[in-house]
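**User:** I keep going back and forth on a fold encoding question. It is easy to fool oneself when nobody else works the same problem. Could you pick a protein and write out its sequence and tokenised fold? Could you put it straight underneath, so I can go through it closely?

**Assistant:**
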Amino acid sequence: MSRENVQMARELIEAWNRRDIDALLAAAAPDVEWTPAGPAAVESSVYRGRDEIARGFVSTWQGWDEFCLDESEIRDVGQSALWLGRATMRGAASHMQLDQEWAVLIAFTDREVTSLRAFPAWRDALAAAGLKE
């Protein structure tokens, strides 16, 4: 696995936790796609391009007072990295708290992120990446 991809994946998750939109988009290809998962999908099931993704991230962060990702591991998936961990979330209006498995499959081309797909369960992410538990 490319150490650069692993490092970029880790930096993207850290930027998410800081709610640093500039850092998240700095590594993104112009036609990047983000597919949020479960309770994170606020306005759309897929966001395309940097502008849409920026709006989607901001909308998601407005809906959740807390949305923190804690890494367990990152796996090699060829031109992608599969981030596995946990998400801790607290609704802005409802104050509902969630603590669950979370995964993000991040695809790269020429040091740019081309897609981000989030999953609320590791098994679904592993299957999407063609891996077994």
Observations:
- Strands lie at 28-35, 47-48, 64-77, 80-91, 97-109, 112-119.
- The first strand starts at residue 28 and ends at 35.
